[in-house]
Write a structure and sequence with these properties.
This protein is α/β, with parallel strands linked by helices. The protein folds into 2 domains: 263 residues, Alpha-Beta Barrel (TIM Barrel), CATH 3.20.20; 61 residues, Helicase, Ruva Protein, domain 3 (Orthogonal Bundle), CATH 1.10.8. 46% of the residues lie in helices and 14% in strands. The strands form 2 sheets. An 8-stranded parallel β-barrel has the order 2-3-4-5-6-7-8-9, surrounded by 6 helices. A two-stranded parallel ribbon has the order 1-10. Helix 2 packs parallel to helix 3. The radius of gyration is 18 Å and the shape is globular. Its EC number is 4.1.3.39. One of its GO terms (biological process) is L-leucine biosynthetic process. Keywords: Aromatic hydrocarbons catabolism, Lyase, Manganese, Metal-binding. It catalyses: (S)-4-hydroxy-2-oxopentanoate = acetaldehyde + pyruvate. InterPro entries: 2-IPM_HCS-like, 4OH_2_O-val_aldolase, Aldolase_TIM, DmpG_comm, DRE_TIM_HOA, PYR_CT.
Amino acid sequence: MLKHILITDSTLRDGNHAVAHQLNAHQIAVYAEAADKAGVPIVEVGHGNGLGASSMQVGLSLVDDVTMLETARKHLSKSKLGIHVIPGFATIKRDLIRALDIGVDVVRVASHCTEADITQRHLGFVRERGKEAYGVLMMSHMASASVLVEEAQKMELYGAEGIIIMDSAGAYLPSDVEEKITALVNGLKVPVGFHAHNNLGMAIANSMTAIASGAKLLDATARGFGAGAGNAQIEVLIAVLERTGYITGIDFYGILDASDLAEKEVMPVVPTIKSESIVSGLSGVFSGFAKHVTRISKEYGVDQRDVYRELGKRKVVGGQEDIIIEVVMDLVKNRK
């Protein structure tokens, strides 16, 4: 019996991390149109850290939220328009109402893996507006399976129609995915999903392990375009899913064409697993730190691998970009 898997394409959101949030309106338009033509169910768009996140601390977007969402909306006729929302970056009054008015269909409200409490108001508001609402637990490798279940149950109570855990650091091995997805599937009534990063080269394997363990939602990006070493490669994921008897509703040739277009029009460099990406994954560091770590390490002449190891020891998470410079300065001081 064929099983349906719901795919969210995060190329135009997670991919923004890979270019320091500098995607332009033309790139958003051409890829949104191609993804729509391929039948991608949900196309996620925005700053890498989500709605309202453009700032000096995490990075300024080339294009503002309104322009990004309006541009994507014009080029999506079949696909749903999705956004990533972290309470604290995005407020309901300033950001979320405006996004829904533009025509956003799917809102994924995210928190650090142990802080689901902060998502209550945003999830509730989205449900009140009649839009699809999902809960997202970021940096999920930092919490045990039992803690993830507890936090996910809060989101379910708040109105989330599905829960996605993110391997934000690309730190998982298949055994980790199996343990945590199985626990979530058994502990929740709503569907469970997985968002992979490829720092250890496991994004596709981990995604397939997730669905074998009961997940029904997967994220992926064209050519793996995303933070750090990138995400699960959507064109490969669709091929493997079809090969193993799953259906997604996505046209295979269409997603191959969309990915070819993205490589030419959207990404300056196709993601690869670099040495520092491996150290980042092993250290459990947020993939979105990659650009910041590279730039600051080069400026002060320190080995970025040492920076990642120290960030991992300090259990730094997204939104704490200011600690990168602190770590670098400590390394400079110790070198003297």
